[in-house]
Amino acid sequence: MSDTPEYEAPDHVGNPLVHLVRRYARPYGARYAVAIVGTALAQVPQRVPALVVGVALDAILLSSASYSLPLVPDGVIPTTTEGQVTFTVGLLVAAFALDGALSWLSGRVAGTARLRTLHDVRVDTFDALVGREMDFFDRRQTGDVMSVLNNDVSNLNGFGNNAVQGLRFVTQIAVAFAFMATLHVRLAALLLVLPVGLALLGRWYTTRVEPVYEDVRESVGRINARLEDSIDGIATVKSFAREDRERDAVAGASREYRDRNWSVIRLRLIFNYSSWSVSSFSFVGLFAIGAYINLNGAPPVLGHSLTAGTLLTFLLYSKSFYGPIRQLMLDVLDSYENALASSKRIVAVLETDRQANETGADLDVREGRIEYDDVSFSYESSDEQQLTDVSFTAEPGSLVGIVGPTGAGKSTITKLLFRFYEADAGSVAVDGRDVTDVSPRSLRDHLGYVSQDPFLFYGTIRQNIGYAVDDPDDEEIEHAARLAGAHEFVTGLDDGYDTQVGERGESLSGGQRQRVAIARALLREPEILVLDEATSHVDNETERQIQESIDALAGERTTLAIAHRLSTVRNADRIVVVDDGRVVEQGSHEELLERDGLYADLWRVQVGDTDAVSEAFLQRARAEDRPSERIESAVDGEVSR
Ligand SMILES: Nc1ncnc2c1ncn2[C@@H]1O[C@H](COP(=O)(O)OP(=O)(O)OP(=O)(O)O)[C@@H](O)[C@H]1O
């Protein structure tokens, strides 16, 4: 399996995660602001119980100090023990209720804002993805591309969740510190030494974990690509009884994922354990120092003494001080690193030179003349030149057949007409307009295409034919199906046009799928029709039917028909013979037979007249590593037509 290229965010994007947040979180800024303020405010009632319990312990249970609370006027506080107990319970209930209400509100607002943001990211990423040039897809596996939309966007969701959590931790730490400082400022200051240690640990962790997370994201893409390949090719896997091999391949990808993930877990464990040790020892240290001051009075450097209740409050606060710092370092930084790796991939899809579908002038097809003028082309992913100086013209309304041996470049020629790729030299023009000057969308609006391996979407036959246009009515669909020779077999199916077809049209035969695809192309009534071996799967009778339809249609629209069965294009106005990326002959069937060149040999092979095939042709067939089926069978004398 070849490695798919990495996803690189373009240079103008600094931090890809910040870039995404700026672009996608901003529209929901008001919601995020409410969530942030709500989360911050909730920290105040959350810190109240520990304070109140400490004061109540000293005042009610130990009777060692008077009942007094910061910011609460003494006049409000009851003087009797019963009154103070009731007052304490009331304060605790109020604090919990306020905390609950604020947390619920901010959780709800943050949740909806986060989901909306992610929805926008997902939809925009998909939009950018389908707008990418074909070359982008040629070089990548479907599963890997899908993992950007699924796993990477989900990682952002995880980060969104943790970011809210992180915000809570930050305010929790700040509020806990403020409360501690009001109780005993010097002891609180002493506690600050420890977060510095934890921060240094956190720094160590993030620098190590960042590259590992990028590797993990890549292996998720690889696993998905592997799975997609095996499931997509399940018929081939089973026919070769290669299930074990697929299992091994998936196991290999999964092992890589497991090992890389283990590196993350190992780092997490080291960080987790050391930060846990730091905070546990500091808790013990705090108790020891606090108890010492309580019993012996404070040394000058620590200022004043402290009561047992204050020590208890301090210890409780220290829990909401160290815990969040550790969590902040671990979960929040962790999901930040993970999301950073994911956002790099998302931004790479979202931001790099996507083909602008809408840019360029609109194409106005008046006649439908197609002209290839000295076109040369090579695929970006290939070192070889696939087309060299290809020139031919399809007159308006004519049928032009394109024939030639396997791999000659026939499909490539038509892909340039659709501007799936652009010619390196020369031009492809429709009615004198270079296709690179018009917007791809307007160009394709005028073109109909039936590929070698037509793709049927999951849905009914009606939906598949109707896919070509917006809101087609049943009559139009039926008319197109009749023209494509599909109506008869469709009405013979139990559910007729409502028959459900699989993702790859698995429940239909190859010929039936092809006819559905032809109907889909015809429904659009394109001015120009491209049929890529559209009759390769069909039987002779169906071929004749389609043939008739094509002949009938050809008068109305310019048609390029790539054919292996030369009989399909026998009646074509012009036949272009392609060999090794060059046009070697062109003319009508009769003219080409007269010429006695490559076409004449191909024709003889097809009609089974192998004795008459030229020696040069036979030598060439034998010299090829993998002679095409037809040449092989021709040499074996198996061709019946
Ligand atoms: N996306 C691609 N990236 C790189 N090379 C490609 C790509 N598609 C086709 N090729 C190469 O370009 C050459 C021409 O391919 P093309 O599909 O145009 O041939 P063809 O004449 O239509 O063949 P066939 O009759 O077998 O369908 C082949 O060598 C093929 O390997």
Automatic annotation (TrEMBL):
Residues 370-605 form the ABC transporter domain. Residues 33-329 form the ABC transmembrane type-1 domain. Gene3D superfamilies: ABC transporter type 1, transmembrane domain, P-loop containing nucleotide triphosphate hydrolases. The chain crosses the membrane at residues 173-201, 270-295, 301-318. One of its GO terms (molecular function) is ABC-type transporter activity. SMART domains: AAA. InterPro entries: AAA+_ATPase, ABC1_TM_dom, ABC1_TM_sf, ABC_transporter-like_ATP-bd, ABC_transporter-like_CS, P-loop_NTPase, Type_1_exporter. It is a multi-pass membrane protein. It is found in: Cell membrane. The keyword Nucleotide-binding applies. Pfam families: ABC_membrane, ABC_tran. One of its GO terms (cellular component) is plasma membrane. Keywords: ATP-binding, Cell membrane, Membrane, Nucleotide-binding, Transmembrane, Transmembrane helix, Transport. PANTHER family: ATP-BINDING CASSETTE SUB-FAMILY B, ATP-BINDING CASSETTE SUB-FAMILY B MEMBER 6. This is ABC transporter ATP-binding protein.
